[in-house]
């Protein structure tokens, strides 16, 4: 199964993508996680990406499309994958279509998690992330077993640099301008699924799995 996860920042793409990846045994590919790994390891890509991410802006298309195209060529993507945070612009979607065409395959579904802007800022201030293993939590809706400690790897959880309120508002603005046109793009291809992302995390997963099938 080849899937794309769409949605505003904080809509729950990462949370749901990890669950869907585990259920269908496909790799979860998050461009945000790839950038954060590069920032942590102080690579050239990380240094460039951080400049944009800290301002709530998108990293330029040319820094991301080849990374994803190369990743999709790896062996573990043969039977499927779930893309989280990519594509984020129409040019990225077009480059993905091209890469998939050359692999003689295509996306089965684009899953759009819908959450109104009002809910987003509230959610982001409660998010805690593990920079070591990429796990995400919410202090109220999805708390770790031990306060501020990752369940998986016992490292300390942090509030992401880009989760400050003013940066979240900027990310939302950019989402509406540059990313939300993808809803129409995949709608026209007849592969768009929209789910309500305001209900409990388990219920969002249920509605996705109901559509994708067991
Ligand atoms: P990225 O990491 O992709 O950030 P994002 O899209 O802004 O999404 P988030 O990770 O913030 O949120 P999410 O939707 O995954 O929500 P989550 O599951 O964590 O990208 C970061 C930056 O990298 C971008 O701003 C950009 O600069 C750059 N970038 C990345 N990809 C790029 C690309 N392709 N092109 C250019 N630039 C790119 O959930 C949020 C919180 O809510 C959590 O605390 C969670 O526990 C909680 N939660 C989740 N679901 C629910 C629910 N149903 N009810 C209550 N709480 C919930
Ligand atoms: Zn961890």
Account of the 3D structure:
The chain is an alpha/beta fold and 214 residues long. It has one domain (2-212): Rossmann fold. 48% of the residues lie in helices and 14% in strands. The protein has helices spanning 13-24, 31-40, 44-53, 61-72, 90-102, 117-126, 165-179, 181-188, 201-212; strands spanning 2-7, 28-30, 81-84, 109-114, 127-129, 136-138, 192-196. The strands form 2 sheets. Strands 2-3-1-4-7 form a 5-stranded parallel β-sheet, with helices on both faces. The chain has a two-stranded antiparallel ribbon with strand order 5-6. A hairpin with a 6-residue loop joins strand 5 (127-129) and strand 6 (136-138). Helix 1 packs across helix 9 (201-212) and helix 2 crosses helix 3. The longest helix is centred in the last third of the chain and has 15 residues, at 165-179. The termini are close together. The structure holds BIS(adenosine)-5'-pentaphosphate and zinc ion. ATP binds at residues 10-15, 127, 136-137, 199. This is Adenylate kinase. Catalyzes the reversible transfer of the terminal phosphate group between ATP and AMP. Plays an important role in cellular energy homeostasis and in adenine nucleotide metabolism. Residues 127-162 form the Adenylate kinase active site lid domain.
